[in-house]
Automatic annotation (TrEMBL):
Protein origin, superkingdom: Bacteria
UniProt name for this protein: Aldolase
PANTHER family found in the cross-reference section: SULFOFRUCTOSEPHOSPHATE ALDOLASE (PTHR39340)
Pfam families named among the record's database cross-references: DeoC
Length: 288
């Protein structure tokens, strides 16, 4: 079965998708703001509140099985206008990384989450320059096949990481090497880091995005991790002008309100304003 990724898009054709699938990284954000341990229930409550407040303004929302999916579905907090994406990745941490290894999560059954409302699955892929490409390629190929069999949109999210031994590496080169390796394997949507993490000149960011567009065979969007929230809207604009189709992002929308004493209100005000602005950027960029 085939699925059309445009069902995750806005009427403009651009993608304004929200991610709330962060796991131990989200726990660390809370831990930085409170002395007591961060509970699993606290993470789940945040995801439910964020989905309720923000999904009316997103074209799709990405939720993880570990801390969010079941509660978000049970509480019926996602706006009917917003498509559901299930994270299909299982993370293994190390002493230095929240995510040191990734596998397709056996707990996420494509047909089950489809019945629960999912339109797509997402898979994180770690690109390390010291590791052979064959396992990455095999995992992405397997993932795409599983999605097609279930009639779900496949989204892959390759991210550039350093070598296992902690040695020096070129993060920017990894973004582009991952796209060359994985960008034409049949995934319906490709989620990329912003070239230069949005810190380069407009010309540098534009050139980097154009290079990604030349090797990614599907529509592609940017994520916001590593990009300062205040520059992410401009990074999205530049990316879309150079061939991207929008964003699938979380931190640029809600990270600053995590742990706030008025967090629920802040999600409805600060975070909604940011998401609406980003959606306007996408609509404007893809229509020119």
């Amino acid at each position: 079965m085939t699925a059309d990724p445009s069902i995750l898009a806005r009427p403009s054709g651009g993608y304004a998708m929200l991610a709330v699938d962060q796991r131990e990284a989200l726990r660390a954000m809370f831990a930085a703001r409170q002395p007591e341990p961060v509970t699993d229930a606290q993470l789940t409550a945040f995801k439910v509140d964020a989905a309720r407040a923000l999904s009316p303004y997103a074209s799709a929302i990405l939720v993880d099985k570990q801390f969010g999916w079941d509660a978000v579905i049970a509480d019926n907090v996602v706006d009917p206008s917003c498509a559901l994406i299930a994270a299909a990745d299982a993370f293994t941490p190390s002493a230095t990384e929240f995510v040191a290894d990734v596998a397709i999560d056996p707990e996420v059954d494509p047909m089950t989450v489809r019945k629960e409302g999912a339109k797509a699955l997402k898979l994180l892929v770690l690109y390390r320059p010291d590791e052979a490409p064959e396992p990455r390629i095999a995992m992405v190929t397997d993932f795409v096949a599983r999605c097609r069999e279930a009639g779900l949109i496949s989204i892959i999210e390759p991210v550039s990481r350093g070598p296992r031994d902690g040695g020096a590496y070129d993060h920017e080169a990894g973004i582009h090497a991952a796209a060359r390796e994985l960008g034409a394997l049949g995934a319906d949507l490709y989620k990329s880091e912003v070239p230069t993490h949005g810190k380069g000149t407009p010309d540098e960011i534009t050139a980097g995005c154009a290079a990604l567009s030349s090797v990614i065979s599907s529509p592609w969007v940017v994520l916001s991790s590593g990009v300062p929230a205040e520059v992410f809207p401009e990074a999205v604009r530049l990316a879309c002008r150079a061939g991207a189709s929008g964003f699938l992002a979380g931190r640029a929308v809600w990270a600053s309100v995590v742990g706030s004493p008025t967090m629920a209100d802040d999600l409805r005000t600060i975070s909604v304003d940011r998401l609406r602005r980003l959606a306007d950027v996408v609509d404007d960029a893809v229509s020119h």
